[in-house]
Every structure is written in C-alpha cells, then in structure tokens.
Amino acid sequence: MSTTTVSTTVSQRKKTTTLTFRQKKERGEPLTMLTAYDYPTALALDQAGIDSILVGDSLAMVELGYENTLPVTMEEMLHHARAVARGAKSALLIGDLPFMSYQVSVEDAVRNAGRFIQQANMDAVKLEGGRERAEAVRAIVSAGIPVMGHLGLTPQSINQLGGFRPQGKSASAATRLLEDAQILEEAGAFSLVLESIPARLAEFISKRLSIPTIGIGAGAGCDGQVLVTHDLLGLFERFTPKFVKRYANLHETMNKAFADYIDDVETKKFPAVEHTVEMNDEEWSAFLKEAK
Ligand code: KIV
C-alpha cells in the first residue's frame, strides 16, 4: 500500500470506542494496541491504523530512564498523554493511572481518572489489580469513565511479586486470576490487559469473559495484543522480555545516524551549499561597504 493510500484510508477511519472493542471481540477480530508517549509516535500509530494507544506508565522506564514504573507521577503522565492526544485522532486513547494515583482512596482514583479525560483528552483509563480495585473501578465507571483492568504481572506491585515474573502458574494462582477477571468485568471494566500469564490460562479467561482481553506475554488466545512500542522498535536496550517480537532496531539506526552526523561536522561535509542561506552579490557588496 502506498503512503498516499495509507493517509487517505486513515482520514476516513472512524474513531475507535469501547463499543468497537466489544464488537471486535464478538466478531472474533483481533484488537491491536501499542504504547505511545509523544506526538510523532502517536501520529505514526494512528496513521498505521492501530485500534488503541496506551499512554503506559512504562513511560517511567523506556522514556524517563527509571529502573521500574513506580516513580512516574500523575503530572508526568498527563504531560505525555496530552502530546499523544494531539497526534492521534482515531485510536482509542487510554491513560495509565500511575502508582499511588488510585490506591490510597476511591476518591483519588476517580479524581485522577477524571484528570486524564478532562486535562489530557484521553478516552479511558487503565489501572492494575484485581478484587482489591473493584470498588475503584465501579466508582470510576459510575463517573462515566471507561476503565481497562490489568491482571497477571502488574509492574506496580513488583516489590510484592518479587520482580518481573510470570504469574498464575499454579492451580490456585490461576483460579484467583480467573476470579479477579470476573470481578473486574462485573465491576464494569470494558477490557482487561493480561500480562505474562500462561497462554492456556489467558485463553480460558478470554473465553469466559464477554469483555475483550488484551494480552502481553499471554499467548495468542487473547482477544487482542499489546506491546511496549520501544520494545517492538528496538529502542529500549536495557532488556527485552521473552514475549517481545522486534520489528526494527531503531537504537542501532539512531547510533549510526548520530555517528554519521558527528563525522560530517568534524570533516566539514555538513552543512553543504544546499543547507545554507544565500545572499545576492549586490546586497553583499553594499553590506561590505557599510561594515566597519
Ligand atoms: O505501562 C504499560 O506499558 C503497560 C503495558 C505493558 C500493558 O501497562
């Protein structure tokens, strides 16, 4: 497909909504979601035809250089979410509630969810956790804000989980995950992220729920898939989880471009004539006469 065809198709693309999510599940059509934290990435994802963009708290690690997702604040999330909203017009935009923005009280949860909608043009929010978050999910949904849940490996709880480890591998853990998924659905969540859990469990949960599941490291039996865009693009070099498929190596591409630029400047190949501003000879002579 040519670039022209892509943009024509995109300008006619309808806005993805939570209803689209439900309908795609009913039709058995896979949902696509990726993360973005800035305007150009959101623009490119939207033009490529992605269903949904998550402004994930993975921002903390892949953009801000923190060890984990815990330090990122509501203010930082909003700043990046606004940039994403300026770039994406069709994808369903989901703001990820950061650590401590919804755990202290249900009031905090509703207020911060509302900030994503009111101050950053997001369409929905995501939060981590199961039954212990049911009340918050219910309250946010009652305020008219769609909520996506997140179960399995929930990075905001790494200190409790003992690190970034797959979850739901024992029969009892799997039962608890299934129950949590059903509780979140009953609380009004429109969709659930299932992260790093056995593929057969993810498929079982997906079939049991009427809301769509979006998997990351949870196999092909989910109703959709999400990846952290920096992992997919090869932009995050610190580590690559086993479940990531790399579609590009932009870190290497950037390194080469930067090295070429440095070399061009040092060897005076850049800037060349075509990169410079001209001044006609007459004006130049007049200037030289006036210059002291
Ligand atoms: O923050 C994030 O990017 C996420 C995805 C991994 C689902 O929560």
Structure report:
- This protein is of the alpha/beta class.
- The protein has 2 domains: 3-248, Phosphoenolpyruvate-binding domains (TIM Barrel); 253-291, no CATH class.
- The protein is 46% helix and 12% strand.
- The protein contains 13 helices and 8 strands.
- It has helices spanning 3-11, 18-27, 39-48, 59-62, 74-87, 106-120, 134-142, 158-161, 171-187, 199-208, 229-233, 250-266, 281-290, and strands at residues 31-35, 52-55, 92-96, 124-126, 147-152, 191-195, 213-216, 224-227.
- Strands 1-2-3-4-5-6-7-8 form an 8-stranded parallel beta barrel, surrounded by 7 helices.
- It is elongated, with a radius of gyration of 23 Å.
- It binds 3-methyl-2-oxobutanoic acid (KIV).
- 3-methyl-2-oxobutanoic acid binds next to loops.
